[in-house]
Design a protein that fits this description.
217 residues; mainly beta; Porin; 8-stranded antiparallel barrel; 1 helix; 8 strands; 10% helix; 66% strand
Length: 217
């Protein structure tokens, strides 16, 4: 009987201890939360300068009695510099302005007549759509170019003003270095050259395809 009573007391004591322990505050394991993942979008805002090389195509469409080099298309290499500023309106929409100047080796000789364009320049607005480090854009503005015509030893030159339209794509290799490929159309309307025997007229256009590299500040 005593042994049974003793076992009963021990059992009741153990049960009481377990119940008391269960009532004590328990240390909770730390809850693991997923850390928010953030993505950095390339920032196109800022100034830049750069250089470019390409090929120019001059369309020369003679009017009236204009013949020879004043009625014949020609082409040649070009090299130039550019600079501008971009501003991100939204994470995808980019607007800006750019100016450039190109030195051309565009010239053509037909018989005694010769036509050449040694440089052109433009001031343009730009608007584009950015996909992180790649920017697709259109551009439009004012173009200026020098043209020279020569026939039978008499020459005349014009600094003509027209308009330009174009499009291109840029890609940021690093935060500072940006590559580009661009097409530009320039229209200078009808220009008149005085070559001694009377004025000769021609519609003048240029198409430029160029690749470049810019440094962003």
């Amino acid at each position: 009987m005593l042994r049974t009573t003793t076992l009963t007391a021990i059992t009741l004591g153990l049960l009481s201890t377990s119940a008391f322990a269960a009532d004590l505050p328990q240390e909770q394991a730390p809850v693991a939360y997923d850390q928010a993942v953030t993505y950095d979008t390339y920032d196109w805002t800022g100034a830049y300068v750069g250089g470019n090389v390409g090929w120019g195509f001059a369309g020369v469409d003679g009017k009236g009695t204009s013949v020879g080099a004043l009625d014949d298309n020609n082409n040649g290499a070009s090299v130039g510099v550019h600079g501008g500023y971009n501003f991100m309106v939204t994470p995808n929409i980019v607007v800006g302005a750019e100016a450039d100047i190109q030195y051309n080796d565009i010239n053509n000789k037909v018989g005694d007549s010769r036509f050449s364009s040694s440089w052109n320049s433009s001031v343009r607005g730009r608007a584009g759509y950015a996909v992180d480090r790649t920017l697709f854009y259109g551009t439009a503005g004012v173009a200026i170019a020098e043209f020279e015509a020569k026939d039978a030893g008499v020459k005349d030159s014009k600094t003509a003003t027209g308009y330009t339209l174009g499009a291109g794509v840029e890609h940021a290799l690093t935060d500072q270095l940006v590559t580009r490929v661009e097409y530009s159309y320039q229209d200078f309307g009808t220009q008149k050259f005085d070559l001694g025997s009377g004025p000769e007229k021609a519609d003048l256009k240029e198409n430029l395809v160029r690749a470049g590299l810019s440094y962003r500040f």
